[in-house]
Amino acid sequence: MSVHVFGIRHHGPGCARALRAALEALGPDLLLVEGPPDADGVLPLAHEAGMRPPVALLVYPKEAPARAVFYPFADFSPEWQALQYALRRRVPVRFLDLALTHWLARTPEGGAAPDEPEEERVDAIGLLAEAAGSADPELWWEQQVERRRDVLGLFESIREAMTAVRAEAPPPTGVEALREASMRTRIRAALEEGFQRVAVVCGAWHVPALAERGPAKADAVLLKGLPRTPVEATWIPWTHSRLTFRSGYGAGVHAPGWYRHLWTHPEGAAIRWAAEAARLLRGEDLDASSASVIEAVRLAEGLAAMRGLSSPGLAELNDALLSVLCHGEPAPLRLIRERLEVGDVLGEVPEGAPQVPLQRDLQAQAKTLRLKASPEAKMLDLDLREEGGRERSRLFHRLVALGVHWAVRREERGRKTGTFHEVWELRWRPELDVSLIEASVWGHTLEAAAAARLRHEGDGAKELARLTELLDAALLAELPEAVEHLLAQVQAQAAVAADVQHLMEALPPLARVSRYGDVRGRAPEALRPVLDALFARVVVGLPGACASLDDEAAGTRLEGMVGAQRSVELLERADLREDWQAALHALVERDGVHGRVRGGACRLLVEQGALAPDALQRLAGLALSHARPAPESAAWVEGLVEGSGLVLLHHDGLWTALDRWLAGLTQEAFTELLPLVRRAFSGFQPPERRAMGEKVKRLGSGAAHTDVVRPGELGMALVRERADAVLPVLARVLGVPGPGGKEVGA
Amino acid sequence: MSQSQAPNVVRHHAEHEYAEELAELAKADDRPRPPSWKLSPWAVRTYMLGGKLPSGFEVRAKYIGNAKLIEVSVTTLATDRALLLLGVPGTAKSWVSEHLAAAISGDSTLLVQGTAGTDEQALRYGWNYARLLAEGPSPAALVPSPMMRAMQEGKLARVEELTRIPSEVQDSLITLLSESTLPIFELSSEVQARRGFNVIATANNRDRGVNELSSALMRRFNTVVLPVPETLEEEVEIVRRRVADLGRALALPAEPPALEEIRRVVTLFRELRSGVTADGRTKLKSPTGSLSTAEAISVLNNGLAMAGYFGDGVLRASDLAAGLTGAVVKDPVQDRVVWQEYLQTVVKERDGWKDLYRSCKDVL
Question: B349: domain range?
């Protein structure tokens, strides 16, 4: 009976190689690997044909899938190699650690999750590296262990080193103590079953605690009466970039691509690496000749010699590549870092791995729609007029409704995509599997689950705006059942909603749906009455809702009004527009309405062309008269010109009124109002401001006091005949009757 | 060579100024040396980065900053590749090149200064025309370039400001580097480089476009980019050492400046260079000049000289003001605005900088 404990570093390729050799030599009849015993059931899958690392063991509490724990494995992970060895040789293999069923029961949400067990632990490698006089523990370990070719006695040395470190460290407490007690108990149990040569593979840190097991009783006491929570385990595909994070086994592998490279090409790693880097650069149209590769390798080897290393490591190679292939430019090196050092790869798991129905449904749909899960971001431009585009869009919207963000909607900048285009960014991340498992409480197919979730959210929604958002989502995801339910909710809420603000905020999404719904061929009939009722309430309630507001509330109200106006514009219905304009007209004349809202209403009317210039001038005169308190006038100006100075530029009457008002302010009032006015003007575009500046210049010359700027005032005399000569061309360009009749020139 | 050993020259060559260090290093150096190298690569590294020898002798650091860069440079030369040092002005390119040549070949004088007027003769050979006319082409009539001498003697040749050299002249370097041979057509002979020959070139990557290196030439160099000092402390340390060294060399009658004064100048330079204050709160305009560490050193030296000859022997803000203003204001219109803004918004408000503010205001 013998127990052989192999201390490894998670994801160390050197350790993996040494471990494989050691196992071959030992020929154990039982293999125990540090990992969650809860996953013993899915262990045999590791050897199935469809399994391709990087993959991760995923263990989650049944009630709370979000608290899932991952155990990632790459090709070069010693644990993975140990599992492969055991499964290939048909040696029984088990996981060895505190069962997650206890662990997850112990750690309440928000507490230390099992995937962060490192924090209480002493940084053993750091201590050893420091003792060895090295500033960089990672580098030290890589040189000492991972790149070692002669692996004889490696595990013995690791054990000695760790024993020395742990002799100084305080004894483990909390979860750490439980874990080690549990590991020891499992080893004892294995021995009792009669196994003769037990191989134990665990993190180097645990070696001393497992080699000297001590009395069984103390451990039994410690492990007694631990709480339990039911857990599920499965395999999911993982990515290299996720290996660089610290999670699961707690080994943030800085350069998984490099480790993988070391694992697959133990001999001549440097040469292959430099050659691969050169190929990569060539692929990006950068110069990288074979001669340069030779020089880069020579330099790397020289550097290794200078630094006293037996062979060049990643640091040497990087220095050499930077100097020779990249000519000192850091940008190509970043490319190498991204593509080679991390080298993103998405693993695969066999069909037989346990999956929730939702995962299967997604896989089936993705397959029919020819969508492939890839860790690289990919942009998809969907044309909704085509069947395929619509179906994909529907799938993405359903996933979004479920909180599975495989595809994220992107607004394409600089290009109007139109209403029948959607741009999505597609990028698979391993956590999405967890989101899917989490979402599976809602149903067994994406359609049913998404509908159920939206309905549930709708029942809980207190605000009308939130409800309409959900409705929007349900329509986009083509979930008629949910739409019906939510629409009923909207109607019910709108009937009792007293707050005009909420009603206004609910308008834009509904208007959008009503307007664009038919692009997708499904504008629900039931929507229109709801929308009409909502709008009617807004129009009725608006004047009342705009009285007695403070500054902040006025701003919010104005925002709501802008949204409502956009909705009216979107719907293009004459009846709604008339009602809306009438409501605005009522506002602009009304005393007691906040200045900013009145100004804003003026602007909204001007934008619709529903306020004649002289009417605006009259209103300006009223609003800016010195009978009113100056701050109120300033607020009016702010509301009027907010966002765009065009109103001001094109209405000279307004301009004059403003000028008269400003000039008439007392010094104190001016100082007081300056920030307000300045704020109103600050949002303008530079060209607008320039145009205003020029207008002010003309103001001085008295030109702007008239409504029409005469060409002569621009510093040029108008030659009638020459101006007339332009008219025929102009008329053709504009498509109006030519200057045969004199009305154009008049 | 004899003239440079004279005691009263303005500036000694590195191999003379640091002769003692080089001798001590050679004594302690038991590692293998590449052919014709005076020191092993490890000893060269120690010479550049400083360190303590087993005998207890202290070697001063010539380059303060990323050790990696020096390691790559030395290894490049050891693997027989030409070295190209890139960097903005004042990042110690020439300094590093001189010291590398001094440590490796014991001779930093084989120098070709690149200018727009540099012709092929400077890289190959010229003729003593009187002799050429009198005797016809003969080895005696040949005037070797520093490059040719470096080849004959197996030493390092230095080319300064490589990108200033016209492209067609640059091209003659290609054969030189790849074949290590310099053909002399007129004599139907050639000079074959002895082992140990190599080239260190420096170029300014701010005006790289002047005569950009062809990719064929670029490929023959390993490139090392020397950055501006990364941290304030590093830069203060560089400036402190150099100011002390230079002050000694020039026998200035003033005390070496207090660390505080150096820190102030370096902070000011760094802030203006990066366009943001050290605390990262205030955005600043950057002047047109590069405001390198080398300029900070010269501002302080200038201040020291002022303090020594015209002041009370202690470096004060008033001694620095003129030098500072000169260093910052390179463009009389644009930079003046930058400098005034900086004085008003940063210097004036900062605790303990009032004296500097007043002095600089007086100069403007």
Answer: 232-363
